[in-house]
Amino acid sequence: MHKESPPFRSGYIAIIGRPNAGKSTILNRLIGHRIAIVTPKPQTTRHRILGILNGPDYQALLLDTPGILDPKYALQRLMKEEIERALNDADVVLMVIDATAPVCDDLSLLRGRPAVVALNKIDAVPRQNLLPVAQACANAGLDKVYMISALTGDGVDDLKNGVIGLLPEAPPFYPPDMVSERPERFFVAELIREAIFNRYGAEIPYSTTVQVEEFRERPNRKDYIRAVIYVEKESQKSILIGEGGRSLKKVGEIAREAIEQFLGRPVYLELWVKVAKGWRQNEGFIRQNVYGSPLGG
Ligand SMILES: Nc1nc2c(ncn2[C@@H]2O[C@H](COP(=O)(O)OP(=O)(O)OP(=O)(O)O)[C@@H](O)[C@H]2O)c(=O)[nH]1
Ligand SMILES: [Mg+2]
Fold it and tell me: What does each C-alpha distance from 160 to 20, 29, 266 come to in angstroms?
C-alpha cells in the first residue's frame, strides 16, 4: 500500500526554566554542537540563542534563554526581556526543571501553548525522588514529562521526538546547513565569558561582559581577535588581571583553546580589561554593548 510521506514540520521551541536547570546543556545536546556556554554557576546565559536542528522532515528552531528570576538590576531586566521574546516566538515551550532542586511554579508562562517538561539531571537523584515531581507537573496540567539527563544523553531522543511532534506543519525557515544565526564574534565573546565564569568566584563573573572589538583574518597567519572584558570597578579589574597578569593570561589560554575548537582553526587572542562603572545598572550601556552591538542583538 502506498504510504504518504509525513508532513514537514518547522517552528520555534523556547527552552525555558530556572537558572542552572540545564537549558544550555540541553540545547547543545539536541543539536549536537557546543554553541551555548555551560557553567556550574546560575545566570550564565544572557541572550536568546538559536540552535537549528535539521532532520529529513523537520527543522526545529530551538531558543535557549536566560534563567527565570525576579530582576534586581537592569541587566536582569533585559535578560527577562530575552525570555519574553523567545516565548513570543515560540510554537512549543520546553520547560526544564532541575530534578535535584525542583520548582514547578512557572507554569503561567506557558500561556496555554503546546508544552513539554524536561525533568533534567536524573543521573544525579535517586529514581524514587523523581515520581513526586512528575506527579506535581501532571497535577499542574503538564502531562508530557520527559525524564532526562542532558549530561549523559539519557532520555534525550524521546524528548526530541516529543517536541518535534508538536511543531506545526510548515516549510523550513533556514537553509539546511545552518546551525545558528549569530556571527562568529558572538560565540567568541561567549567562550571568553565561559572561561571567566569557570575561573573566578561569585563576584567577577556577574560583573563582567565581553565585547569582541576586532576579529581579523590575516593571510598566512592566525586570525587576530581583540576582546575587551568590562568590569564594574577598579578592584575587580585587579582581581581579573591578577598578580603580574597571571590570572588574565590563564583565562586567555583557556578561552583561546575553546575558541580554536569552536572555529576549527588557530587564533591569536588579545584580552584587555576596562572598567565601565556600574554597567549592570546602566541600560544604555547594556543595550549597546551586551545586546545591541554588531555581535547581533
Ligand atoms: N548531573 C547533571 N548535571 C547537569 C545536567 N545538565 C546540566 N548539568 C549541569 O548543570 C550546570 C548548569 O547547566 P547549564 O546548561 O549551564 O544550565 P542553564 O539552565 O543553561 O543555566 P543558566 O544559563 O545559568 O540559566 C552545569 O554545571 C551543567 O554541567 C545533567 O543532566 N546532569
Ligand atoms: Mg544557560
Answer: 20, 10, 34
Pocket flag, ligand 1, residue 39 (CB < 6 Å):
yes
* Cβ of 149 below 6 Å from ligand 1: yes
Among the bound ligands, name the one nearest to the CA of residue 40. Answer: 1
Please report the domains of the chain, with CATH numbers, ordered by start residue.
9-165 (3.40.50.300), 184-291 (3.30.300.20)
36, 45 contact by CB (below 8 A): yes
Q: Which atom of ligand 1 is nearest to the CA of 154?
A: 31
User: Residue for cell digits 583561546?
Assistant: 256
Q: How far is the CA of 277 from the centre of ligand 1 (A)?
A: 30
In terms of pTM, does the model score above 0.90? yes
For residue range 246-270, list pLDDT tens digits in order.
999 999 999 999 999 999 999 999 9
Q: What is the pLDDT of residues 188-202, one digit of tens each?
A: 999 999 999 999 998
